[in-house]
Amino acid sequence: MDLHELEAIAEREQAQRARFRILCCAAAGCQASGSLEIKRRLELVLSAAGKQADVDVVPVGCMGLCGHGPLVRLEPTGKVFERVTPADAEELVAALDQGSCNVQQCNLNHPFFTRQYPIVLRHSGRINPERIEDYIAAGGYRMLYHVIHDLTPAEVIQMITRSGLRGRGGAGYPTGLKWATVAKSPGERKFVICNADEGDPGAFMDRSVLESDPHLVLEGMAIAAYAVGAEQGFIYVRGEYPLAIERLQKAIVQARRLGLLGAQIFESGFNFRVDIRVGAGAFVCGEETALIASIEGRRGQPRPRPPYPAESGLWGMPTLINNVETFANISAIIEHGPEWFRQIGTEQSKGTKVFALTGKIRNTGLIEVPMGITLREIVEDIGDGTPDGTPVKAVQTGGPSGGCIPASLFDTPVDYESLAAVGSIMGSGGMVVMDEHTNMVDVARFYMEFCKDESCGKCIPCRVGTVQLFNLLTKLRNGQAGESDLQTIEALCELMRETSLCGLGQSAPNPVLSTLHYFRHEYEQLIGAEVDHGG
C-alpha cells in the first residue's frame, strides 16, 4: 500500500456512491431502539420502488442526540429525523424527492448542534464504521502515511507537545510529555495500550467512538507507536461493549489486509500490530497498573508507582497508555497543526472534550465542546434543561471519582483546573444532571456503593473505608445517625484520600465530600430523622 493506492480507494469509493444516501444510526443506543429494523425496512421500500441503485442505505455511528433516537439523516440535504420507526420508511424515501415529510425532524439550529466543535466526533454518524473504505474516503490513514514518510519520531512528539493535548482519560497529564518519556526510556520492546475500560456510571463516550469510528483510534495508535518506537499495541476494552469489540475486530482485520497495520506499513520499515484484550468489567482496571496486570494475565490490581508504566510497564517494558479519546485527537492535530489545536479551549486546557450528557436532561446524548465552555451553557443551552422544566440542582462530573457541582456554580468553565477548584474533576467525560427532586445523600451513597463493589481489596483504606462510608451513609439515610457520624464520615474521607494505593480509593470520597460541602443541610436534616422511603 502506498499513497497513490490510498487515494485510488478514496476516489473509487466516492465514485461508487449513489446520488442519495440515507444514514441510519447503528450505534448501540439506536440499535436498542430498533434502528436495524428501520434500515431493513428502508431497503425493502427502495427495492419495491426500484430505487435501490439510486440510494445507499448506510449504517453509521452515533449522531449524538441519543435520547431522541433512532436517528436518520438524509443526504445531500443533511436533514436529520428523530424517533424514527419502521413505519416511517415510505415517507423518508419520498422525502428524498419531495424534500419534506411528516416524520419529526431535528432542529439543526438548536444549540445542541450549533455549539458543538467536532474533532473526535467529526466522522461519527457520517461514515460506515464497518467499512475501511468509508474512513479512507473521509481522509483516513493519510496522516499515518505523512508521519512515516515525512516526519521523524521526534518531530511527531514535538507536534503533540506543542498542541497542548492532555490525556482525556481523566488525569489530564500532558500527552506529549508522556510520549517523550516512553520514547527515551530504554527497553528491548515498547508497547502502546489504548485504555477503553470505560466504567463510570452514565459514561458512554469511548464506547460510542469505538462503535462509530474505530479506524480513527487505530490510526492514532499507529502514529503514537511510530513516535515512541513500539511495534505492538493492545486495546483493552470492556466485555460489556460487544458492538465496539466487534467493530474493532473488523477494523483491525481490514487495516491488516490493506497493509495499514502489520509489517512494513506504507512500504516502510515501520511495523505495528494491534490486538484486543477484553476486560471482565472491573472498574479498577481503568487504572494503568491494574490494566497492565490484567493484560499480563494476572489479577487486575494496582501497584505502587514509581516506576511509572512509561518506564516500566507491560512485562517490565516502556509502555504508552492513552485512552480512546486521546488517540482519536492525534490525526487531526497532525493534519491541521499544533497551533490550530492550541487555539481551541483555554490557556491550560486545549482542544475539545467529549461528554456523555445524561440524567435529568432533555437532550441526552454525546456532545463534543471546546474546553472553557461553562456548565450553564452545556446544561441550559445544549442540554435544554430538564424534561419537565424542573430547576436543575447539580451536575456530577468525573464519575465515582468526581464531585457534584451545585447550580450556583454553573458559570464555572469546563476545564481541568476550574473543575478541580470547585471540588470535582473532568474525568473521562461523564456528566450527570440532577434536578431539585434528587436527594444528594442518595447520590453520594450510590457512588460509594459502586466504589465499595469495585474496590480490588488490595489496600486497607479503600477496602475497608468504602464499606464503612457506605454503612454510615445508609445509617444516615435511615435517620439513625448523629452529628458524630458526620464527623466520622469526613475523617474517613480524608483518610482514604491520603492513604489509598490508587486513584479509585483516593478519589472515591469526592462525591461525598462535594455533597457535604455544597448540600450539608441535606445531611443535617437526616440526623435523627424518621425517613419514609416510600412504597
Automatic annotation (TrEMBL):
Its EC number is 1.6.99.5. It comes from Chloroflexus aurantiacus (strain ATCC 29366 / DSM 635 / J-10-fl). It is an enzyme of class 1 (oxidoreductase). PANTHER family: NADH-QUINONE OXIDOREDUCTASE SUBUNIT F. InterPro entries: NADH-UbQ_OxRdtase_51kDa_CS (IPR001949), Nuo51_FMN-bd (IPR011538), Nuo51_FMN-bd_sf (IPR037225), Nuop51_4Fe4S-bd (IPR019575), Nuop51_4Fe4S-bd_sf (IPR037207), Thioredoxin-like_sf (IPR036249). It comes from the Bacteria. Keywords: 4Fe-4S, Iron, Iron-sulfur, Metal-binding, Oxidoreductase. This is NADH dehydrogenase (Quinone). Belongs to the complex I 51 kDa subunit family. GO terms for molecular function: 4 iron, 4 sulfur cluster binding; FMN binding; metal ion binding; NADH dehydrogenase (ubiquinone) activity; oxidoreductase activity. Gene3D superfamilies: 3.10.20.600, 6.10.250.1450, Glutaredoxin, NADH-ubiquinone oxidoreductase 51kDa subunit, NADH-ubiquinone oxidoreductase 51kDa subunit, iron-sulphur binding domain.
